[in-house]
C-alpha cells in the first residue's frame, strides 16, 4: 500500500477496491467468484472480518469492511489477498476447460516476476486504496457506489438484480451469498 492510503484505525470501517493486475477480467467465470466468496466467509468465521457491503465486477471487487478485533483489518486483507491469489492460480493451472488460462497465467507470472514484492506470481494490484468511512454521508455514498457499479457497467438494470453483491440484502429482495453487518 502507498503511504497516502493506509488503514490507520483498525477499528474503523473502510471502503476498499481490490483490482486484478492489468484489469484482467478474471471474474467473468463463477468458479473464481466462488473462491472470493469462500475466502471472505473464512475470514468472517476465523479472523473477525466484518462485511458491510460488497460487489464483484469482472476485474475488481468493491467492499466495505471492518474488523471485530480478532485480527487487524490490514492483516485480514493481506491473508485474503494471498489466499485468493493462490487458489485462483491453482484453479487456472488445473482447469483444462479454461480457454484463457495460458494467457492469464503468463500475464500474472510476468507481473509477479517484475515486482520486487513478489516471488513469481501476482493476481492483485498492490494497493487497495482504503478510504475510512467516518461519516454517514460517506457511508451512504460508498454503499450506493458499490451497489450501482453493475448498473453503470450495463450488466443489470437494478442493483438488487446483481447476484454477486450485497444489494439484494439491502433492497430486501433476497439473501446474498455473504453474511452482512448492515450500515444504518
Describe the structure in your own words:
The chain has 184 residues and is α+β, with helices and mostly antiparallel strands. It has 5 helices and 4 strands. The protein has helices spanning 30-47, 73-94, 101-114, 136-152, 167-171, and strands at 14-19, 49-56, 60-67, 131-132. The chain has a 4-stranded antiparallel beta sheet, with helices on both faces. A hairpin with a 3-residue loop joins strand 2 and strand 3. The longest helix has 22 residues, at 73-94. The chain is globular and about 45 Å long. The protein starts with 13 loop residues before the first strand and ends in a 13-residue tail after the last helix. The mean pLDDT is 92.
Give the overall silhouette: globular
Radius of gyration: 16 Å
Helix coverage percent of residues? 40-55%
The strand count comes to 4
Termini distance?
29 Å
Unreliable stretches covering 5 or more consecutive residues: none
Roughly what fraction of the amino acids lie in strands?
5-15%
Quickly give the structural class: alpha+beta
Number of helices in the DSSP assignment: 5
Order of helices and strands: EHEEHHEHH
* Sheet with the most strands: spatial strand order: 2-3-1-4
Q: Quick one: biggest sheet?
A: 4 strands, antiparallel
Round the mean pLDDT to the nearest integer and report it.
92
Distinctive features:
184 residues; alpha+beta; 4-stranded antiparallel beta sheet; 5 helices; globular
Summarize the SSE layout with pairings.
Layout: E1 14-19, H1 30-47, E2 49-56, E3 60-67, H2 73-94, H3 101-114, E4 131-132, H4 136-152, H5 167-171
Antiparallel strand pairs: 1-3, 1-4, 2-3
Helix pairs in contact: 1-2
